């Protein structure tokens, strides 16, 4: 769903991006017990979402444009890329994840320490 491809839709589907961001945010907010065990996978999803928000520069040549477009998923049109609203939604999830997950990771790591005598 998030992997790059050379075939793209004519129109970008912003709803797919918003759904993925919403699901990631809900998992972080509501199911921290699950997220702690799948943290590498969540980090990969957030990384891919960050890559999707990139915009192509107008000065790029054909080869460079093709390389950048190849990193976009099929539901993102190269001519109609994600906007500011989508970037802000992802930013909120990233900020929330940093505050919540850092606290959970600290609690999880201290829970495994042997008790002091």
Describe this structure in words.
The protein is mostly helical. It has five helices and no strands. The protein has one domain. It has helices at residues 14-30, 32-35, 39-52, 62-69, 84-111. It starts with 13 loop residues before the first helix and ends in a 6-residue tail after the last helix. The mean pLDDT is 79.
Number of strands: 0
Largest sheet: none
Number of domains: 1
Which percent range fits the helix content?
55-70%
Shape: elongated
Q: What is the C-alpha radius of gyration, as a whole number of Å? A: 18 Å
Order of secondary-structure elements: HHHHH
Number of helices, counting only DSSP H or I runs of 4 residues or more: 5
Kindly report the oligomeric state of this protein.
single chain
Gap between N and C termini, in Å?
Answer: 51 Å
Rounded mean pLDDT is: 79
Instruction: Please state the structural category.
Output: mainly alpha
In terms of DSSP E residues, the strand content is under 5%
Uncertain runs are: none
Describe the structure in brief.
The chain crosses the membrane at residues 34-51. This protein has 117 residues and is mostly helical.
Please describe the topology of this protein.
Layout (H helix, E strand, L loop, with lengths): L13 H17 L1 H4 L3 H14 L9 H8 L14 H28 L6
């Amino acid at each position: 769903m998030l992997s790059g491809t050379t075939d793209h839709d004519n129109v970008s589907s912003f709803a797919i991006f918003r759904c993925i961001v919403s699901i990631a945010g809900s998992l972080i907010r509501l199911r921290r017990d699950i997220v702690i065990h799948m943290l590498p996978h969540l980090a990969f999803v957030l990384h891919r979402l960050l890559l999707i928000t990139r915009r192509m520069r107008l000065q790029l040549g054909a080869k460079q444009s093709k390389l950048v477009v190849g990193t976009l998923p099929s539901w993102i049109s190269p001519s109609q890329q994600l906007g500011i609203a989508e970037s802000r939604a992802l930013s909120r999830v990233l900020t929330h994840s940093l505050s919540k997950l850092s606290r959970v990771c600290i609690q999880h790591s201290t829970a495994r320490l042997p008790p002091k005598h």
